[in-house]
Design goal:
Blueprint: H1 6-10, H2 12-28, H3 35-50, H4 59-70, E1 93-96, E2 101-103, E3 114-117, H5 119-130, H6 143-161, E4 163-166, E5 169-172
Antiparallel strand pairs: 1-2, 1-3, 4-5
The chain binds zinc ion.
């Protein structure tokens, strides 16, 4: 834990966000190779939650996304893997949950659930992939991006890792 987690001890909202991250880590379990990255990520998330602006309710979700990135799942966010077009041209992308793929809006994976991600959500994923939680307060996400990211990240975690958040804890599904 942190040297002096003053806010986490006195602010229930911040504490709740920290506990959510911790419960996710516990439920996931971490491999030996992934332990250092996971530990650093958790420490930085706690530090971010101590910061002035660090109490965004999205932090645990972004934490889950970054955790998946760090543990080896790295979706291509620059171009469409099917047709090769750049995904920066304003049309966003479509996240295909079963394949764990991001494709452009014109390319459809064979079947299964998919979620549309606008450019703002795509940019946020790139940002979270690249920068530590200490910088996430720079993201100011619209309601739409929050919805898109929540569906895509939790859809991915549920389908590929088999965890879902239910009544204050993560359960295997
Ligand atoms: Zn495409």
């Amino acid at each position: 834990m942190l040297r002096s987690p003053r806010r986490l001890r006195t602010d229930l909202h911040r504490l709740g966000l920290a506990v959510n991250c911790q419960k996710f880590l516990e439920a996931m379990g971490v491999s030996l190779e992934g332990a250092q990255a996971a530990y650093t990520l958790f420490e930085e998330a706690l530090e971010a939650l101590e910061a002035d602006k660090g109490a965004d309710a999205m932090l645990p979700l972004l934490f889950r996304a970054r955790f998946a990135f760090d543990q080896g799942y790295r979706p291509e966010t620059g171009f469409c893997l099917q047709c090769g077009c750049e995904m920066d041209s304003g049309q966003g992308a479509v996240f295909h949950v079963q394949e764990g793929l991001l494709l452009c809006g014109n390319c459809a994976a064979p079947s299964g659930p998919m979620f549309r991600l606008g450019n703002e959500s795509l940019d946020a994923l790139r940002f979270v992939q690249e920068y530590s939680p200490l910088h996430w307060e720079a993201l100011s996400l619209s309601e739409r991006a929050r919805r898109e990211l929540t569906r895509a990240v939790d859809g991915f975690i549920q389908f590929h890792i088999g965890l879902t958040w239910d009544k204050g804890m993560f359960r295997r599904v």
